[in-house]
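Sorry to interrupt, but I need a hand with the structure work. It will help me judge whether the discrete encoding reads sensibly. Write everything out right here, beneath this request:
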Amino acid sequence: MRRSAAIIVNPVSGRGQTMKKARKAIRLLEKAGVKIQLLPTLYQGHGRFLAREHASKVEVIISIGGDGTLNEVINGLLDAHSDIPIAVIPAGTANVVALELKIPKDLESQIHIALEGPCRKLDLGLADHRPFIMAAGIGPDAEIVTRIAEKRDHKGISKLNYIAPTYHTIFHYPYPTMRIIVDGKMVDETATFTLVGNCSLYGGHFHPFRNADPADRLLDVCAMHMKKPGDWLTYARYGLLGRFSSCPDMTHYQGREIQVLALDPIKIQIDGDPAGQLPVTFGILPEAVSFCVAE
């Protein structure tokens, strides 16, 4: 059993509900006799600093927040060259990593996993040497993410914040094409929306990657070729039916190095945060981070 824990919590995530969850978690941990350090984040990137500074002081770091908070924790542990495990208590908008790891929804089970669950080593993706745990998006979704980030305030974001940026992107995005090179071979020259995934899930519940496994030392690529607003309806229909990866307009690839190039300034998002523009080269960092998981 792990006897000491640092709780890194984003007070803004989950529309302010994370501190309530953190206090409940503290009561359960104290009941188990665990030594606790509560570390609220104060600004973007603070979670990375906190994880780096406390990696050598505790036996587990508990991330309470969304996928963005978790990404900061992962980067902090990489900075510290630490293999201390991370326990996930999801409290964000999508919570993709928690879904990927099949973390239970009840707090008592989450605490049990944090203290006694086995560890699972996962790969990380790299986007021009910037680590990511979930996926990178190039094209329309990065446009949406950028617009949301520009409007983000101290209250955080909810699913409602996606409505206006998504609507604007659907009807005004120009759909420039990009080229995709997988392990040195040109595989696609007409894609307008590309996802590069480490995990199998995207956006919470969609499965665009047919064979993604965050421990297989490979990246998965999903290339889409939408050209007009009506094409979104096709993708939405397949997604709602649980057949997103079977959409006839998609092509799928796997590889260790993925290059994406374009003549136009196409935006990139990484794990839900804006990350510049093309070109970009993706790689893999095998067995880079350890997570507490259910037995």
Q: What stands out?
A: The longest strand covers residues 280-292. Helices lie at 18-31, 46-54, 67-79, 96-100, 107-116, 140-151, 163-172, 231-240. The chain has two domains: 4-117, 130-288. The chain has a mean pLDDT of 91.
